[in-house]
Design goal:
Layout lengths: L10 E6 L1 H5 L8 H15 L4 E6 L7 H6 L4 H25 L4 E5 L8 E2 L2 H9 L3 E5 L9 H11 L4 E6 L4 E2 L11 E2 L1 E3 H6 L7 H9 L4 E5 L5 H6 L6 E4 L10
Parallel strand pairs: 1-2, 1-6, 2-5, 3-4, 3-5, 6-10, 9-11
Antiparallel strand pairs: 7-8, 10-11
The protein binds uridine-5'-diphosphate.
Uridine-5'-diphosphate (UDP) binds next to helix 1, helix 3, helix 4 and helix 6.
Length: 250
């Protein structure tokens, strides 16, 4: 395949898990790692691609962890949503240090800290070349930030959801325990759901499927991978409807 320097996607949603911001410590925020992500996002912007980011919060707090220890689930989930706001501010700060114009929009209002989520306003920001960071999940307990990313991707009519992970892509078995695990170049949404593959939760996968939003699962730890995906290099795993159509992965 030929790799053009023309971006393959016009508007993307990048899903960053909290862990992606934590670096090797696995918790908290590593400013060096966040800075590296910010630089990579800036490179992608340089190609005229519109980027919205959905940040997770697992490096600080996960609702399920709290509820499994006896907390009220909804309360624990609100704590998780607030954790994503902390991460969003860290990424905003790093991007601004690189001269990128950023707007954080939260699904739970906190006007002193960030804008509330307003879909049309988010789209305007993107059209002006600003990065929009969506924080506080979708504002509801019992959801994940993966589902939020799928939802926002549908709402802002993104061409793709880029799911940054620690693995190279989606495997047919767990690569950490099975040495024969094979990375898949492409897989259908339905097979992800049927085989219960750990791409993201079923709600998020279904939402992408119902709205024909392709997902590219790729390794975030390799510098430059976001740009490679956006330029159409065949890295990671493409999750879609079955055939790589004209807008497909390669
Ligand atoms: N969360 C929520 N509703 C949402 C998004 C997130 O309640 O719409 C909570 C949930 O408790 C979750 C936590 O926020 O565990 C952090 O999000 P997530 O686990 O998706 O973060 P990631 O795994 O991407 O770091």
């Amino acid at each position: 395949m030929t790799v053009s320097e023309q971006p393959k996607y016009r508007r993307v949603v990048l899903k960053l898990s909290g862990e992606a911001l934590a670096g090797s410590a696995g918790f908290g925020i590593d400013p060096t790692v966040v800075d590296s992500i910010a630089r990579q996002i800036k490179e992608v912007l340089g190609f005229g691609v519109q980027i919205a980011v959905v940040v997770g919060g697992g490096n600080i707090w996960r609702g399920q962890a709290g509820s499994s220890k006896g907390m009220d689930r909804a309360t624990a989930d609100y704590m998780g949503m607030l954790a994503t706001v902390i991460n969003a501010l860290a990424l905003m700060d790093a991007l601004e240090k690189h001269g990128v114009v950023v707007r954080v929009q939260t699904a739970i209002e906190m006007k002193e800290v960030a804008e509330p989520y307003i879909r049309r306003r988010a789209i305007t920001h993107l059209e002006k070349g600003r990065v929009v960071i969506f924080a506080a999940g979708n504002g509801n307990p019992y959801f994940s930030t993966d589902t939020t990313a799928a939802l926002r991707a549908a709402e802002i009519e993104a061409d793709v959801m880029l799911k940054a992970t620690k693995e190279a892509g989606v495997y047919d078995a767990d690569p950490r325990t099975n040495p024969n695990a094979r990375m898949l170049d492409e897989i259908r949404y339905l097979d992800v759901l049927k085989e219960n593959l750990k791409v993201m939760d079923a709600t998020a996968t279904s939402l992408c499927m119902d709205n024909n939003i392709p997902i590219v699962v790729f390794n975030m730890n390799t510098y430059g991978n976001i740009l490679k995906v956006v330029l159409g290099e065949p890295i990671g795993t493409y999750v879609g409807g079955g055939q790589r159509d004209v807008e497909g992965h390669s």
